[in-house]
Design goal:
The complex is a heterodimer of chains A (194) and B (392). Chain A is α/β, with parallel strands linked by helices and 194 residues long. Chain A is built from seven helices and five strands, in the order E-H-E-H-E-H-E-H-E-H-H-H. Classes of the chains: A alpha/beta (194), B alpha/beta (392).
Amino acid sequence: MDELLSIIVVEPDRDRAMLIVDSLRGAGDFDIHVISEVTGLARHIKSHNPDVVLIDIENPSRDMLEELTLASGPLERPVAMFVDRSADGLTDAAIEAGVSAYVVDGLKPDRVKPVLDAAIARFRMFQRMRTELAETKRALEERKVIDRAKGMLMKAKGLNEEEAYALLRKTAMDQGRRVADVAQALVTAAGLLS
Amino acid sequence: MTPTRLSVGFIPLIDAVPLIAAQEMGFAGEEGITLDLVAAPSWSSLRDMLVFGRVQAAHMLAPVPVAAALGLGGTGSAISAVSVLSVNGNTIGVSRELAARLRGAGHDFGFHDATAAGRALIAAAPAPLRIGVPFPFSMHAELLYYWLSALGLPAPQGVDIKTVPPPLMADAIAAGEIDAFCVGAPWGSIAVEQGVGELLLPTSAIWSFAPEKVLAVRTDWATAEEALLGRLIRAVWRAGRWLDEPGTRSLAAEILSRPEYLNVDAEILDRGLTGSLTISPAGDMREVPGFMEFHRGAAGFPWRSQAEWIALQLAARTGLDRTTAGRAGRTTFRSDIYRAALGGTKADLPGASSKLEGALEAETAVASESGRLFLRPNLFFDRRIFDPDAPV
């Protein structure tokens, strides 16, 4: 039996880190460390001497890991970005999901696959959550602007709420624009004129 | 006809401006293409986005395609530099504490003499001198190694050059993780503005005409999409020419300052674009002619000799065979593709594809297609000349 695969997860957010660790534990028996500090990242990783390093692609500290790809001493094992592109398009899937994996040279793909599969699934979920959050935020912002524009129209033209919205919608349709954009234009213009 | 869309990745830095101007000022449109500009979080991510086809072209550190050809970093996929996007533009800065020590020892922060600045730095700095750079495969790293080893401070014994993403550079200095840094604009000016550092030297004082960023594409894509790539190269060339016209750089600073690009105050961007730098929180100013070039002196031409210089530097510090490395490295700068794309346009192209690096004291006329091409001064600070046909 091989030794336990040792994995380092670089993730500053504690909750996210816990979720990743849980997913990995579900995929097999691994020796997992989480590093949340970016200071001296390459040095910390080197001292753990892991087989696999997982990091969010969005994390700018990822560039620090590039140093690991240069073995600076004869006893060090060079770390390579997971290069086996033929293995089920695993790397493409990882990049798509927003996770970068650095894997020690010479590690067999079948040992790494469950790790990456679990990480990819988890990161896909993060990505969905990120998109949902951004969408919700945008929708809320737009709602606020539309409400303000409605209020302005009701006051200026003596309309009720329904009529004010109908006017916004009609203008938007006539101009081939979104209601939110028309509302924004009205709010901006009113701001300039006041 | 609907324009063809191309996704192009960039890192939010001033020297991404030829790509941004190509799109914003309509040069891409003239070629029937639309550039979808995608900001990337790190150089390694951008390289992978390029390799895995998330973007078709990328703003890239000049040594990255060379390093890939040498099997250093990344996935080993072949990347071609089809044009040089910018020449020079980085600054070396030191912590406030080290700046005070330099001043105390009588250094004048003259900002042009690399020998004087280097000697003063070596004398004043702790051992080993720790310097942050954005990426292991960067002109920042190569120029630092070249400069300090020529002055008698060899790596890795005397100097520890480590990767620190520029947005974290200020924290790293504050935390005492590094003593100095070498970064691209606007990060040097931002460090000054935040009061954490002072600028010591522009890297143009080490090599006066150093390729900095390149336009990178996958080598197989360059072959498969030759016509489309030609349109991209021409659009970027026109953007570079536009940036060289008087008065355009302030407008460029305004465009770059937008949230979707750099999201940095236009005044700070203007410093890098015009080479008029504030080097200390006390407000000392220095003018650096040619701080960042996009066009003059055939700046966009990807010289094989530039790639070979980078390859030999990389080989020397990673212990690779120099002959093999030089041969593999030089082919990543695709003067052939650049020539094919710009043949028949107003671009005046040099007759040769390789040249002596570091051999021009002054602006010099060279053989070219229309005979009106002048190359800019090209000197190393130690007056060494790099001859690609007889590399030492």
